[in-house]
Amino acid sequence: MNTNESYNIHLDFKIQRFNFEDNLYHNEYNFDVILDEDDEEKVIGKGRVFLYLTNKMFDDGLGWIDFDDIFGDNNHVDFLEELFEGDQYGSVRLKEHYYYKILDQCSSCNILIPDRLEIYPEYRNKGYGKIVTKMIRDMFYDSYGIEIIKAFPLQFESKNAHGIVPEIYEKMRYDLMEQDEDTAQQSLYRMYTSKGYKQIEYTNLFYYYPEN
């Protein structure tokens, strides 16, 4: 549990069955966002974060195929391809411009991916998402060398291959959110920039280095 007393918010992490072999090189954290308001706790959102234990992957001598399997299991191959490169022998290394920046900021090459954050409709536009972002960074401080995310408007998720169930779409009131994809995307870009992320040119990926 992590608490932000100024805003009476804490993150309630759910304990799930853990398969050590399947999760040897990454940790997955699912949580509820809890607001303490008028002496009553309310769930105002939910989220999911992945921490890829890249240091251990390198120490254990994993190759490109292994990296691809690990990141691919969670649909994070685009992050793998952005941050890492392989050679003809199948070995893996961080791309040079990330490698030197990460080492300058932190001794860890672990990768933090805030995979999802959803604030319920009645609590949107109150700054809670920005608060949760800082709480996550504080929680994992010194545990990762770079944070990377994909900016994708969730109201359009039902249009991709995975889709979402109608009940969830209705509960989250995605119909009230911007329905023009380009406008929604640009709005999301501005929001992530306000949280301190920097956009990777020509992509919808954003990164953030932990502060010293």
Overview of the molecule:
The protein has an eight-stranded mixed beta sheet with strand order 1-2-3-4-7-8-10-9, covered by helices on one side. Strands 5-6 form a two-stranded antiparallel sheet. The chain is an alpha+beta fold. The longest helix is centred in the last third of the chain and has 14 residues. The protein is built from seven helices and ten strands.
Keywords:
212 residues; alpha+beta; 8-stranded mixed beta sheet; two-stranded antiparallel sheet; 7 helices; 10 strands; 30% helix; globular
Task: Summarize the SSE layout with pairings.
Layout (H helix, E strand, L loop, with lengths): L1 E3 L4 E5 L12 E12 L2 E13 L1 H6 L4 H9 L4 H7 E3 L5 E3 L1 H10 L5 E9 L8 H12 L6 E5 L15 H6 L9 H14 L3 E2 L5 E4 L4
Parallel strand pairs: 7-8
Antiparallel strand pairs: 1-2, 2-3, 3-4, 4-7, 5-6, 8-10, 9-10
- How are the strands of the biggest sheet laid out side by side? 1-2-3-4-7-8-10-9
Low-confidence stretches: 1-5
- Class by alpha and beta content: alpha+beta
Count of alpha and pi helical runs: 7
Could you give a quick summary of the protein structure above?
The protein has 212 residues and is an alpha+beta fold.
